[in-house]
Design brief:
This protein is an all-alpha fold. The protein contains 21 helices and four strands.
Length: 558
Amino acid sequence: MKNTNNTGISGKLPGRELLSRLKTKYPFYIVFILVFLTVMAVSFFDIATSETVFSFALSGYQVDQIADRTIIAKKTLEPTELHPVAVQKGEEIIKKGFPITQERYDKLKKMAETPSYISTRALGNAFLFFVLLSALMFLLFSPFFLGREIKLKEVICLGIMFVIVYAAVVFGRKLPAFSDPFTLPFIIPATFFIMLAALLFEERLAMYFAILLFFAVLYGADFNTAPAVFVLCSGMSTARIVRKLDKRISLILASLVLSLLNAVLLFTLEIIYGSPLDDSFLNGLAVAFNGFMSGILTLGFLTPLELLLNTASVFRLMDLSDLNNPIMKRMLIAAPGTYNHSMLVATLAENACTCIGANGLLARVGAYYHDVGKLEQPEYFVENQREGNKHDDINPRLSVSVIRNHVKKGVERAHQMHLPQEVIDIIAQHHGNSLIAYFFNMAKQQDESVSEEEFSYSGSPPASKEAAVVMIADTVEAACRTLENPSVPRLEKFIRRLIMTKYETGQLDKAALTFNELDIIRDSFVNILAGYYHSRIEYPNQKDPDSDEKEESDAHEK
């Protein structure tokens, strides 16, 4: 039946959808408003301390100059010690076409340096500029460009960094030592913040942030393009340089590279803009020092910020991938089958993610911890069973409750360990809401009325490529253990069937994996498992232990 309510495909009213979005996104909007108001406050200070008369700079006027406009005082200003002249409301200060006398110029200066004469037009220009920049920000950080939903902690960090950079430009430009466009980059901490953004979050986010900082510096430097271009080029280079660092000590080398790069970049800009090269060597040393200190400060701030923000940075993931940590040692002893299973799943997932351009390190760490919930009752999982199956003696409903519970226990333990949310998501989603078919079929034989919901995992399907790959690797590794004669063609056919089952049951709907990527994942799994299950030559001195026991038994009987 045709819907005549005009409420859209979902049947929801547009107003309700907007209200629902505001309820879920309101923390983001609050952070945005606070950042915007702070930026406007800095702009207000900039305008209030600038020598402006409405929308005209005082520097555009001088004694004996022919005035190009008429300016009439809107307020009465009493004489002060700094400006002993008086200004009366309605007084004609200068008149178009007439020369400016010293007295008239003094009155202009008094008006320009009085807070009552803040340029409303300049303040309006700042408002419009940052509204347009906000629109660009919403575009760059949208799921379409970023490839995912931006997190609140990322918005907060980037907002604070943006305000600091803009304030540094505005305040620094007013100091004589940094008023020159080629000395202003000395005090702009853009390289430091972009390095932090790239390491704590991701390279793409840092790249987009560098674009926003370009416009912030451009406006803060009164549209002088030299420092803005320097920040953009240095920021883009920084994000690219640090994107593949996997050791904290490597930041020292990155700092040295950035030092040289900044010096060369500034020298190039001085040549392009035709600036005198008298101080180019000192300027180069200054920006080189800025680049070097950016790396050193990043090294110092990175660890506390990783723990405070609980991010899945490359260094944090490298620390978590250390198998000598207590939880992995306990798993090796208490659940050796689960431990070995996790190691192979990690190998499969990391290699597959690397092949499709996803985060292989995140997949490896997620695979290490994906079954950490089995530590509660390891003997109920087949890979740890040595003498019989405990599920043979209990009801299928109880069995499925134990099996399903390991996901919940794993998430709880992950929170206790303060694992990054990305790793916790892999633990929570590695079974999705799939059916536990073995116990469902067993229960079906006893009671035809049982439903699939009772025997399905209570999680949600994987929402990232890494979580989806870990899910597939988990299924493939466990299933291939039961495959007889695991030749390459049989492995390929078997794995294809397992992957398509996941697809057909809707477990991969949210992961944004293409069919081409699924083929690449399958081929990656086949290559590794073919080597793992390869056949070996039986040497003459190697005998089947069962045959030895049989020979000894026959000898005793004789």
